[in-house]
Amino acid sequence: MPPPINDGNTFFATEDIAKMSTDEFIAVEDIINNQIKNKIAIPKSEANQKVAQGAYIYISGYTRDDGTKVSGYYRRRQH
C-alpha cells in the first residue's frame, strides 16, 4: 500500500494525531501541517459519520516496507 498522499484529500482525526508516536508523526507531518494550514481539525466521531454517509473512506493503519508505521487515516471520496 502506498503512503498517504498530501493532496488535500487525506487527513487524520484529531484523536489519531494525539496518539501517534514521534516516528508516525514525522512520517505524515506534511499532511498534518496541511491540515493545520487549511484549518481541518475533525474529531473521529465526525469523520466516522462521514464514512457512514459515503463522503469519506477510512484507510487502516499499516507498516511501510522500511518499517515505518502509518496510522489509519481518512480520505475524501473522489467523485
Summarize the structure.
The chain has 79 residues and is of the alpha+beta class. The protein is built from four helices and five strands; from the N terminus they run βααααββββ. The mean pLDDT is 87.
- The spatial strand order of the largest sheet comes to 1-5-2
What is the straight-line distance between the termini?
21 Å
What letter string, H or E per element, gives the SSE order? EHHHHEEEE
Average predicted local confidence, pLDDT: 87
Number of strands: 5
Beta-strand portion reads: 15-25%
| Low-pLDDT regions | none
Q: Please tell me how large the radius of gyration is.
A: 12 Å
Q: Which class of secondary structure composition applies to the elements?
A: alpha+beta
Shape type: globular
Number of helices: 4
Q: What is the domain total for the residues?
A: 1
| Main sheet properties | 3 strands, antiparallel
Helix content: 25-40%
Question: Would you mind describing this structure in some detail?
Answer:
There is one protein chain. With 79 residues, this protein is of the alpha+beta class. It has one domain. It is 39% helix and 18% strand. It has helices at 14-19, 22-27, 29-37, 44-53, and strands spanning 10-11, 56-59, 62-63, 69-70, 73-76. The mean pLDDT is 87.
Supply the key terms.
three-stranded antiparallel β-sheet, 18% strand, 4 helices, 79 residues, two-stranded antiparallel sheet, globular, alpha+beta
Question: What's the layout of helices and strands?
Answer:
Elements: E1 10-11, H1 14-19, H2 22-27, H3 29-37, H4 44-53, E2 56-59, E3 62-63, E4 69-70, E5 73-76
Antiparallel strand pairs: 1-5, 2-5, 3-4
